[in-house]
TrEMBL record:
The gene is Hsdl2_1. GO terms for molecular function: oxidoreductase activity. InterPro entries: HSDL2, NAD(P)-bd_dom_sf, SCP2_sterol-bd_dom, SCP2_sterol-bd_dom_sf, SDR_fam. This is Hydroxysteroid dehydrogenase-like protein 2. It is found in: Mitochondrion; Peroxisome.
């Protein structure tokens, strides 16, 4: 279906962009690899040239172009080169994206600029440069890798700048789909679950891939969209939803570890535990609600019960820290080298810490003996779930149940440590 079509794909040297390129290449499409990695990166795999080799091997024609979407002239030069080489542009995939999952006070200005420049401005300028050529195509499409716009504050509170930048890409879809209706199809595609890429490895650490799907699911969904008529426009598409409509029944083929629980992606409220999410959105975790129901004899009774629960060292939070303290080894301290502070709300809440930096290590109530590297805020109930293996830290973070300030790399190390602790809890 895409034989002879020319696709201009930003960020196509690796990950999702490359997966979409390879899918189109199997039809014999021409692929313009508009990405900035010309020299091998010290941690990330692939360059525009290695991607070109894979595309040619898959049956397509490749044109590698060095493009940093922050530089308008580089975009214009690549578009001109694409038109000169292949005679036009039929499809634009705005895939290049920058991410920093940090709060307002923790996000450096250069990171804010990077996300706004790559995600919003880069998408806008690349679309602007390609549109005159897309209008000449028989079935032109623009596809942005961006989410449906969900104004639930949960998706803003932990990473406001990133959310604004991704929604900026989605607003390009809203505006351009209407502006060019009847001429160019403009749609957005977003995954239902986390996708295993180099970026996800950096965010989630070792072992995260088991909770992800392969990039193939987005490549297959993108192919479905890009082969539809240009009248299919202005849609915010979720990969799994579209593929189910197209008749796909077996989604295990897309899983890195079939049968393993998957992390739901950002910006989608339909979580694996929808009841808990709904309740939490309106103020309290389910456990807190149960507690409040048991305290409905009156305000005084509730107050006494809460105070006595907090004072008891045998509460779930205190018991968890007691086990952590007992399970500590010099090996944990040596391999982690981090101090974690927990700000817990609800029953048994307050400030708690785990010190895995000072010789011997320690854990308990109050502030840590030395300055914390990572501060984590969450409900007591979710904290206990996290340390007993019932709630993955990554899932807690992505669903807004866990807020992290400080050293993200150390926060990721905690997930490894939890898997070792949870057997003892």
């Amino acid at each position: 279906k895409l034989a002879g079509c020319t696709l201009f794909i930003t960020g196509a040297s690796r990950g999702i962009g490359k997966a979409i390129a390879l899918k189109a290449a199997k039809d014999g499409a021409n692929i313009v690899i508009a990405a900035k990695t010309a020299e091998p990166h010290h941690t990330l795999p692939g360059t525009i040239y290695t991607a070109a080799e894979e595309i040619e091997a898959a049956g397509g024609k490749a044109l590698p172009c060095i493009v940093n979407v922050r530089e308008e002239q580089q975009i214009i030069n690549a578009v001109e080169k694409a038109v000169k080489t292949f005679g036009g542009i039929d499809i634009l995939v705005n895939n290049a994206s920058a991410i920093s999952l940090t709060g307002t006070l923790e996000t450096a200005t250069k990171k804010v600029n990077l996300m706004m420049d790559v995600n919003v401005r880069g998408t806008y300028l690349t679309s602007k440069a390609c549109l005159p050529h897309l209008r000449k195509s028989k079935n032109p499409h623009i596809l942005n890798l961006s989410p449906p716009m969900n104004l639930n504050p949960m998706w803003f509170k932990n990473h406001c700048a990133y959310t604004i930048s991704k929604y900026g890409m989605s607003m390009c879809v809203l505006g351009m789909a209407e502006e060019f209706r009847g001429e160019v199809a403009v749609n957005a595609l977003w995954p239902k679950t986390a996708i295993h890429t180099a970026a996800m490895d950096m965010l989630g650490g070792a072992g995260i891939e088991k909770q992800c799907r392969k990039t193939d699911i987005l490549a297959d969904a993108a192919y479905c969209i890009l082969t539809k008529p240009k009248s299919f426009t202005g849609n915010f598409i979720i990969d799994e939803v579209l593929l189910r409509e197209e008749g796909v029944k077996d989604f295990d083929v897309y899983a890195i570890a079939p049968g393993h629980p998957l992390i739901p992606d950002f910006f989608l409220d339909v979580e694996t535990d929808t009841t808990a999410m709904k309740q939490e959105r309106y103020g309290a975790a389910p456990e807190d609600k149960k507690l409040s129901r048991s305290q409905q004899e009156g305000a005084d009774g509730a107050k006494v019960k809460t105070e006595s629960a907090a004072a008891k060292p045998s509460g779930p939070v205190a018991e968890t820290f007691r086990v952590i303290q007992g399970a500590m080894t010099e090996e944990y301290v040596r391999s982690t080298q981090g101090v974690f502070q927990f700000e817990l709300s609800g029953d048994g809440g307050g400030t708690w810490y785990i010190d895995l930096k000072t010789k011997g290590g320690s854990a308990g109530f109050g502030k840590p003996p030395v300055t914390a590297d990572v501060v984590m805020s969450m409900s007591s109930a979710d904290f206990v779930k996290m340390f007993t293996g019932k709630l993955k830290p990554t899932l807690a973070f992505m669903s807004g149940k866990l807020r992290i300030k400080g050293n993200m790399a150390l926060a990721i190390k905690l997930e490894k440590m939890l898997s070792q602790f949870s057997s003892k809890l």
